[in-house]
Amino acid sequence: MDGSAVITDPKTASAALLPLGQRPRLLEMSAVDKIFNGDVVALRGMSLSVHQGDFISLLGPSGCGKSTALRLIAGLMRPTSGAIRWEGGQQKGDLGVVFQEPTLMPWATVAQNVWLPFRLRGRSFSSVRDDVLWALKLVGLEKFQTAYPRELSGGMKMRASIARALVTQPRLILMDEPFAALDEITRHRLNNDLLELRDKLNCTVIFVTHSVFESVFLSDRIVVMAARPGRVSRELTVDAPYPRGEVFRTSAAYAELCRAASDALHGAMNEHGERDRA
Amino acid sequence: MSVSEMSHVIDQEELAIARAERFERIGKWALPAIVLIAVLVLWDRVVVWNGIPHYILPGPGLVLQTLIEDWATLFDSLMVTLKITLMALGVAVVGGVGLAVLFTQSRFVEMSFYPFAVILQVTPVVSIAPLIFIYVDSKLTALLLCAWLVAFFPILSNTTLGLNSTDHNLRDLYRIYGATRWQRLRFLQLPAALPYFLGGLRIAGGLSLIGAVVAEYVAGTGGIGSGLAFRILEAGYRLNIPRMFAALLLIAATGVLIFAATSLLSHLLLRKWHESAIKKEG
Ligand SMILES: Nc1ncnc2c1ncn2[C@@H]1O[C@H](COP(=O)(O)OP(=O)(O)OP(=O)(O)O)[C@@H](O)[C@H]1O
Ligand SMILES: [Mg+2]
Q: Mind listing the domains of chain A with CATH numbers?
């Protein structure tokens, strides 16, 4: 019943990240179509398998269906056709979500906001106080438990939002352009911190972004999508080892990968879809 | 070194801003007080210089004197009017919020009943009140019903708006976490509706007083006959104009008091998190 009980506790050390290709499967999206209003084809034949420990970036032009794919995985809507299957079935608490906006409840303190996923499962604050503190510590907000969201900077709000997504130790974390609205420096720092978290927790992440650099720096798999209709155009593997930091950011390999990802993105943007000929 | 020097430099613009702020702070209270005193003095002089008899226009001094002399009677009436006003406001809050919650929980109920709530609202209460007094035996109930009819709508419409204006990402988040209807209402919609509700409450407070007074007028001297509006009617028949003014003064003061109380409540409940309650910075 309780998702967090099933997973090994990452607060104590977690198993080392397996190399790509050896990771157990977590979720399978097969030949998914999503058609809005009978004629807006947001996704056509999208397939994606997600493995435990993957950090996948969905990279693509505006309107290629990245958010739609996330919403389908989150169960907020159903595919028009095709299927999304969780390994071992989906349970409450399997998902953590971070949106582009921090999406905090303004009337609740930071700690109360982070408590929310537990609260909705009927857990009292005192019974999960340790988990809430743990999550806040992970994102460096332990001193701001009693602050209200309006007292925080944009970056700190986003950290609180990430803490809320992590607090139940979900099997999969979905992030839809979480840092797009932040300034460059904050974004840079949050990218570093996100990777640090990922090294600690070995969590599985699907991360939507417009930024080639962000996708290369963060992920081990980059899924490049094309628009009209939305579909997977190419997949790139970033085999640079974690932990990654400034050394990786300034390396020749990084520059090379960015160029490759950029080419793939441009390729995807010039690919002609079935409705694009006019 | 240069920093400490800099801090002694007087910035003309900052000084001007500080002056403007001081003027705001003092003027907010002082200016209305000056106007009030000026009007009272003028009123008094007009009455004295023109020798206007007190059964046409009493001076402010006489009104005050009447207020003190008739305090026992007027205070009892004030309590009656206040009781009806507050009870109506209470029923309006319960009814307005209850209906709003019902409307957001069931689209079916909302579509069925919302138009009638609007019809009730746009029909002037003076025109319904006589009917209410015919069909409802208890005068108190009838008065309450009138006051409620005027007061509940702003609470209903504001609360409905608030319950429906939750952030769509938060709604999605609640769905993803498998929140029940009740959890969504309790943890998301009600807190989000609070500022809207409080805005409605401020309007409804004034309206329930209006409703109570209008209903008393309609009930007339044959009513339970002791509210402030009844005193005004009664004093009018007897050409006791000073008492009419004294009663009017009490009604106005009641209105101001209700407004101040609801504003204070709103400030206390929202000051931690809502933009409306946060003082401008800088
Ligand atoms: N609820 C909806 N109803 C109708 N059309 C929709 C709906 N949601 C998305 N679409 C359409 O589906 C397509 C894909 O939208 P989606 O939001 O998934 O793109 P995206 O890749 O996330 O774009 P962006 O980078 O701008 O966020 C777009 O053409 C959009 O207009
Ligand atoms: Mg999007």
A: 1-94+194-271 (3.40.50.300), 96-169 (no CATH)
Shared domain for B79 and B155, answered yes or no, is yes
Which A residues in the span 231-250 are in contact with B, Cβ-Cβ below 8 Å?
A: none
Place of tokens 């950011």: A249
What residue type is assigned to position B90 of the chain? Answer: G
- As a whole number of angstroms, the distance between CA B191 and CA A111 comes to 17
What does each C-alpha distance from A244 to A47, A193, A250 come to in angstroms? 28, 11, 11
Question: In this complex, is the C-beta atom of A77 within 8 Å of any C-beta atom belonging to chain B?
Answer: no
* ipTM here: 0.89
Quick one: B19 and B113 in the same domain? no
DSSP line for A168-193: T--SEEEEESTTTTS-HHHHHHHHHH
pLDDT in tens, A9-52: 444 445 567 888 889 999 999 999 999 998 899 999 999 999 99
pLDDT in tens, B193-209: 999 999 999 999 999 99
Q: Which domain holds residue B2?
A: 1-51
* pTM, entire model: 0.86
Residue-by-residue DSSP string for A66-107: HHHHHHHHTTSS--SEEEEEETT---TT-EEEE-SS----TT
And the tokens for B277?
């309650």
A64 CA: nearest ligand 1 atom: 21
Q: In whole angstroms, give the CA distance from residue A153 to residue A78.
A: 36
The closest alpha carbon to A157, from A101, A214, A218, belongs to: A101
**Are B115 and B214 members of one domain?**
yes
Which residue lies with its CA nearest to atom 14 of ligand 1? A65
Distance between alpha carbon B97 and the CA centroid of its chain, in Å?
A: 17
Q: What is the DSSP letter of B124?
A: -
- Measured CA to CA in angstroms, residue A2 lies from A92, A206, B45, B174, B278 at distances of 7, 23, 81, 17, 40
Residues B155 and B82 in one domain: yes
Q: Is B164 found in the same domain as B41? A: no
Q: How many residue pairs from chains A and B have C-beta atoms closer than 8 A?
A: 56
Look at A120 and B274 and tell me if their CB atoms are within 8 Å. Answer: no
**Beta-carbon separation of B273 and A106 below 8 A:** yes
